[in-house]
Write a structure and sequence with these properties.
The structure is a single chain. It is built from six helices and four strands; from the N terminus they run αααβααβαββ. With 196 residues, the chain is of the alpha+beta class. The N and C termini lie far apart (33 Å). It has a four-stranded mixed sheet, with no helix packed on it. A hairpin with a 2-residue loop joins β3 and β4. Helix content is 29%, strand content 9%.
């Protein structure tokens, strides 16, 4: 399976952002894949972050959201399932979550104004799926060392109810595990904003 970094297609996205929809269709059609675990819509707001850095569209929440939207539209217009990640935001950490559990000590208001911003804007618009990050965020779930990927407060209350991604945790069709990453797929018959 071919891998195409967003860094290779980002100049085209920036150039065409306000002229026409980013044409990921032509980039991804030859791959013959029905899903792409992208885009990363984390905001790169910590220079010490060892895992997000250049995988992000940048430090500005508006730019990240706009480029993320174009990337999603290009993929989904080509019939490729997009997956926004890493919910609820993995940018402000200094630990690689592949090896340890990063902690984000911010208030819910701080998270709402920055980390959650791209997700709040893009999830209601019909993105196919979301990947949940492995983070410890006491403002979301204060259970000691409970990862957001295992937290019902994060997945069911925040992702499903507040953000509007309809998921059913009892259905294997809608809950998938890829290596160590947990992601949730929008059911085919659900409309954006529906919780069914």
């Amino acid at each position: 399976v071919a891998f195409i970094s967003f860094l290779l297609v980002m100049p085209a996205a920036i150039d065409s952002l306000f002229k026409r929809k980013f044409q990921a269709k032509f980039v991804f059609e030859p791959i013959y894949s029905s899903n792409k675990v992208a885009p990363v819509i984390d905001i790169n707001n910590n220079a010490e972050n060892p895992v997000i850095n250049d995988r992000s569209f940048g430090e500005d929440k508006e730019k990240v959201t706009l480029l993320g939207k174009q990337y999603i539209n290009g993929l989904q217009d080509a019939g490729v399932m997009a997956c926004v990640k890493h919910f609820p935001g993995h940018g402000d950490v200094t630990t690689d979550s592949h090896y340890d559990l990063p902690v984000i000590n911010k208030s819910k208001a701080q998270l709402d104004s920055l980390e959650l911003y791209p997700f709040k804007k893009l999830l209601p618009e019909g993105v196919s799926s979301a990947m949940v990050g492995h983070l410890y965020i006491p403002a979301i779930d204060s259970t000691k060392n409970r990862a957001t990927s295992l937290s019902s407060k994060n997945v069911q209350e925040l992702l499903q109810k507040e953000m509007g991604l309809p998921i059913n945790l009892s259905s294997g069709e809608r809950f998938k595990t890829l290596k160590s990453d947990t992601f949730y797929i929008r059911p085919n018959n659900s409309s954006p904003g529906s919780n069914e």
